[in-house]
Each structure stands twice: as structure tokens, then as C-alpha cells.
């Protein structure tokens, strides 16, 4: 399953509807590995400071707050609704494609956890819709989806209907409800800054990355990963006075790994999540290259493009990555205070493989 469309309205700085349509790919015949079944698999979002790149990631992962019990970020709940709007609800819409099937899940909230409306359709046919404030909805099609045996008597009035169905019915993994739940269970947002493992979704257990590398026997592989990406260090584990193990840089004397540079620490965070990639359904890395040398940033983009089948969205200020040798014009998006739009949609010019996208961007080609 893959996300094909997302929209948000009245959440944080998004006063009106902002849409990101991953199905609007062009017919470029290069870097086709950036697509999956015609849907954009790899994307980089650019935007000036304070336009809401981080908030857009928060919006995209809002779905994890009421459907699953996973890691949360307290910043999501602060100033949840747009400060300049009189609307009392934020609105979200997700479209997923699974083979020939299309699922559309929409909802509204007053804050990160309280739903006021929820609906689901499969192939343009309503499964249900429910207004939490009125306590009324349309459940006339539940039998067609094998959901008519549900006991509503003991449902908590505030819980998501999708979550309640998933937890109280014996549904196969192929059922639309379970498809959505499994996808949301695997969603991961993380920040690649060098000050710890800040993430949303995927897991409810926050573990120390060096401990994970040692426990899983990845010390040698982690060293190779660092070396391949320009960090020419030898890594070893050593026993501390209290009997625990820690990672060290191996020199004439051992240097604790926590003394690593911000860039090396950020690379370790990436390695940690890379080792979980088979369980990830959607990956969002905020400011992914904030501490990376430009060659390292390029390596990560190519790794995500060529070796990781997961849909991956990055945010960055690094315009040198805006080049057809890394991705395609339809995989680069610009976020402004008014909208989010791909490069081909931001200009009347027909973008081709020979165009210097960075130069066009710097010269204001996509400002309109």
C-alpha cells in the first residue's frame, strides 16, 4: 500500500487546505526508481524558514495520534489549530492505493486526540461516516465490508471507529481496515539532528541507539556504514566499570562515541532506522541533512532512491540536491505560506532532463 494524496486544513500554520498529490507524476524516462507503480516514492520538500516544513510533517503524522499507540512529539499538541482562523476543527484527508483499490480516510479534530468527524470509503463507496458531536452517522454499508457484527454498546464515545473495528473484530490482514491500521503502525517521522533520537510513530519504546547496535551485533556493519559515507573511524564496543557495554572510537586510547560530531551522530540515527526499514511503511525525515557534508547528503538520497522501496519524504534547504541526476522534477516540492507544489506545477516551462533545476530555482523560476 502507498500514500497517493494528503491534505490538511486549519492545523498550525495551514489556515486553508494544503494538498500534496503523489499521484501527479510526469512521464520522465529517467530516475524511474523514484516512483512506485506510477506514484511518487521519493520526495524532497523545500521552503523558506518558518513556512511550515516541520509542521507539514506533523500534519502528515497526525493520523498516528488517534489510530495507534506510538511515540508522540509534544510539539504537535501545542497551538494545534491555526491561530488566525475562527474554525474550531482541523481537517485531514489521506488517500491510499493498494493494487487496484483506493482507500480514502478523512477526519476532523479539535486537538491531537479528540475526533469530531471520521469517514472511510473504498473505491468511492462509503464504508461509514460518523459525526462525533451529533452522535450520528451512515453505517448502511457495513455489512458489505463484513463489519455488521460489531458490538457498539461498549465503545468509548471518543475512540476512532476504525481503531474500534480493528481491535474488536477478527478481520483478515487483507481487509481495508487492517490495511490502513498496518500502514499507520509502520509510519515513521524522525529528525536527523545530532541531539538524540526524536521521532513520531512506529514504536512506543524509546531505546538508546548505541545499545541497539551492540545488542544486535551491528558494530562492524555500523563501522562499514560510517566508512562508506566518509567517516573514517574504527568503532568498537568496550565494557564499562559498571559492567555495561558502550560504543567507542578505536584509537591508541578509546574515545566514547558520545563525543562524536553532530554529523556522525545524525548518521548513527539514520543507520538505526535504516535497520528497521522492512517494518516501515512511510518515512519522513525532517531537515535530514542539517549536519551532513554535501556528498553524504547525496549518498543518502541515492540510497533512499535505489535501495529502499519505502515511500520517503525529506525536508531540506540544500538546493544542490535539486538536480535531475538525483531525482526528477516531479519529486521536488516547494512549500510556501499558500501551498505545496511540485516543480512542474510551479512553472509554465516544460522541465527536461537537461535543465539545471537549482539554477532555475535560485533565479525565481518557481516563485509564481
Strand order of the largest sheet: 2-1-6-7-8-9-10
H/E series: EEEEEHHHEEEEEHHEEHHEEEHEHEEEH
Please state the structural category: alpha+beta
Mean pLDDT: 93
Write the layout of secondary structure elements.
Elements: E1 2-9, E2 18-21, E3 35-36, E4 39-40, E5 42-46, H1 53-60, H2 63-67, H3 74-77, E6 90-98, E7 101-109, E8 115-122, E9 125-131, E10 136-138, H4 161-168, H5 176-185, E11 187-191, E12 198-201, H6 209-215, H7 219-228, E13 235-239, E14 245-249, E15 255-256, H8 262-274, E16 282-286, H9 294-306, E17 311-315, E18 332-335, E19 340-342, H10 357-362
Parallel strand pairs: 5-17, 5-18, 11-16, 16-17
Antiparallel strand pairs: 1-2, 1-6, 3-4, 6-7, 7-8, 8-9, 9-10, 11-12, 13-14, 14-15, 18-19
Description:
The chain contains 10 helices and 19 strands. It has 368 residues and is of the alpha+beta class. The strands form 4 sheets. Strands 2-1-6-7-8-9-10 form a 7-stranded antiparallel sheet, covered by helices on one side. A 7-stranded mixed sheet has the order 12-11-16-17-5-18-19. Strands 13-14-15 form a 3-stranded antiparallel sheet, with helices on one face. A hairpin with a 4-residue loop joins β9 (125-131) and β10 (136-138). It is globular.
Amino acid at each position: 500500500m502507498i500514500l497517493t494524496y494528503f491534505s490538511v486544513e486549519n492545523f498550525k500554520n495551514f489556515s486553508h487546505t494544503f494538498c500534496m498529490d503523489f499521484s501527479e507524476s510526469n512521464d520522465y524516462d529517467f530516475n524511474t526508481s523514484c516512483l512506485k507503480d506510477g506514484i511518487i516514492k521519493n520526495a524532497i520538500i523545500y521552503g523558506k524558514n518558518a513556512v511550515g516544513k516541520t509542521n507539514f510533517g506533523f500534519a502528515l503524522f497526525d493520523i498516528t495520534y488517534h489510530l495507534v499507540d506510538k511515540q508522540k512529539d509534544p510539539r504537535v499538541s501545542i497551538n494545534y489549530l491555526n491561530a488566525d482562523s475562527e474554525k474550531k476543527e482541523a481537517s485531514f484527508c489521506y488517500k491510499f492505493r493498494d493494487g487496484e483499490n483506493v482507500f480514502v480516510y478523512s477526519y476532523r479534530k479539535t486537538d491531537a486526540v479528540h475526533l469530531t468527524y471520521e469517514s472511510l470509503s473504498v473505491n468511492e463507496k462509503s464504508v461509514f461516516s460518523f459525526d462525533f458531536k451529533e452522535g450520528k452517522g451512515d453505517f448502511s454499508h457495513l455489512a458489505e465490508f463484513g463489519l455488521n457484527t460489531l458490538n457498539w454498546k461498549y465503545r468509548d464515545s471518543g475512540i476512532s471507529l476504525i481503531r474500534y473495528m480493528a481491535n474488536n473484530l477478527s478481520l483478515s490482514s487483507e481487509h481495508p481496515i487492517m490495511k490502513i491500521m498496518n500502514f499507520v503502525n509502520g509510519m515513521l517521522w524522525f529528525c536527523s539532528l545530532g541531539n538524540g533520537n526524536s521521532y513520531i510513530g512506529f514504536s512506543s519504546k524509546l531505546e538508546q541507539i548505541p545499545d541497539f547496535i551492540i545488542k544486535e551485533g551491528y558494530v562492524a556493519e555500523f563501522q562499514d556504514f560510517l566508512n562508506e559515507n566518509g567517516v573514517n573511524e574504527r568503532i568498537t564496543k568496550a565494557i564499562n566499570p559498571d559492567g555495561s557495554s558502550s560504543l567507542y572510537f578505536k584509537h591508541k586510547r578509546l574515545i566514547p562515541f558520545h563525543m562524536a560530531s553532530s554529523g556522525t551522530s545524525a548518521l548513527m540515527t539514520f543507520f538505526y532506522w535504516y535497520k528497521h526499514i522492512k517494518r516501515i511503511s512511510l518515512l519522513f525525515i525532517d531537515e535530514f541533512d542539517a549536519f551532513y557534508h554535501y556528498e553524504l547528503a547525496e549518498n543518502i538520497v541515492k540510497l533512499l532512491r535505489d535501495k529502499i522501496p519505502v515511500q520517503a519524504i525529506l525536508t531540506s534547504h540544500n538546493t544542490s540536491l535539486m538536480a535531475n541526476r538525483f531525482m526528477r522534477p516531479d519529486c521536488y516540492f516547494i512549500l510556501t505560506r499558500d501551498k505545496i507544489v511540485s516543480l512542474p506545477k510551479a512553472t509554465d516551462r516544460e522541465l527536461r532532463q537537461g535543465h539545471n533545476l537549482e539554477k532555475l530555482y535560485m533565479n525565481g523560476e518557481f516563485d509564481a
